[in-house]
Amino acid sequence: MAPSSHDRETADRILDAAHTVFLRRGTAKSRTQEIADEAGVNKALVHYYFGTKAALADAIFERALGTLAPLMFGILADEKRSIEQKVRDIVREQIDFHSARPYFAAYLISEMHAEPERVAAVMARRGSPPRDVLRRQIREAVEAGRMRPISAEQFIVNLMGLLVFPFALRPGLSALLGIKPSGWSAFMEERKRLLPDFILAGLRP
Amino acid sequence: MAPSSHDRETADRILDAAHTVFLRRGTAKSRTQEIADEAGVNKALVHYYFGTKAALADAIFERALGTLAPLMFGILADEKRSIEQKVRDIVREQIDFHSARPYFAAYLISEMHAEPERVAAVMARRGSPPRDVLRRQIREAVEAGRMRPISAEQFIVNLMGLLVFPFALRPGLSALLGIKPSGWSAFMEERKRLLPDFILAGLRP
DNA sequence: ACAATATTTAACCGCATGGTTAAACCACTT
DNA sequence: AAGTGGTTTAACCATGCGGTTAAATATTGT
Prior knowledge:
The structure is a homodimer.
Chain A lengths: L7 H18 L6 H8 L3 H8 L2 H24 L6 H18 L3 H11 L1 H10 L6 H12 L8 H17 L1 H8 L3 H23 L2
Helix pairs in contact in A: 1-2, 1-4, 1-6, 2-3, 4-5, 5-9, 5-11, 6-7, 6-9
Chain A binds a DNA duplex through α3.
């Protein structure tokens, strides 16, 4: 794996390059040569650092999952924020996050589709996210009559669907609904305004 | 394209096989040999009928899109159904559709991600869906005070996000939220019950 | 039985691509 | 000047896979 001397900076340059390339076109359609080019380095060095394309792909996948998950679950597990506040914060953060990373959502789904085994492997390393805080808050809100009952899982899936999906389907939606590249950010800004109310109203009794 | 004699049935067998294979693993990771095997036919014949793998992939992609879109837009464009009824019908139909076709959603997103150009090409052939009926119904519902204003596009994206996304992310969700294969259909049945109210309540003023 | 059509067989080509290697080359330190 | 860790060069190998081909063989209609 690390038979000879490695430079941390170079490793990161290659990782970042791989991130860029893999996310843009998907692992299968990406060439190691592209990654080398993107990193300003040659193919031999890429293998020298990471051995195989698959290993590099695994690293990028895990890194991607490890970036997104905490952003969502960190907020959901926060004791100090009310459910209402969480919804508002997650909507804002997720839309900003994916707006800055157009290929992120589609990449994740593509990879999980092409290599479902990897998900299990990665999940085994990082535990699944804590949902007890969320569950308690939902229960309390239900008891207080502010909310209809819903499982934490359904709640999370609703959030992700409304927030992540549009980005995953961006090329399709642009074509299907005639949203031009210029109109996209406006569309998403409108979503940022719209969704908190939509979600919260949807949960009220 | 069709230089010699073709049998309709065989062409369909190959198409169906390609559908199965492409949807399961994605176009890039699928081999023409697999398709031949799945069709109970040999590789030469696949090329004899469809020329190239890309042509076959295009056909499958268009067929997939052509199956899903009418299901959703057909209902949305229906004059006779109220918005409320449309939501209920689409929820049921979409969840049933994707439950029977586990790879469908992830496949579509993967393909659009890997080859965004194709979407535009396909869309050029089939026009974009009619939204005027839906727009009018929303306007009327808003004027009648039954609904908060929302653009038809946001409305559609919300629907698709809530309905299609979970299937696209199925392997991820199963691992992430600990939903076992056996629990999945229960999870989806619960969604079928839950979503109409969630969506309609979310739209009310 | 004959001809036309449909399908298989089995070999083959070409090429892109992942991966390897060995030697040369730098940049920096001592 | 010599050494050391990092990087390039440029060739090379192996292989998988898309695609082709020509002849053999079924299958079908007449």
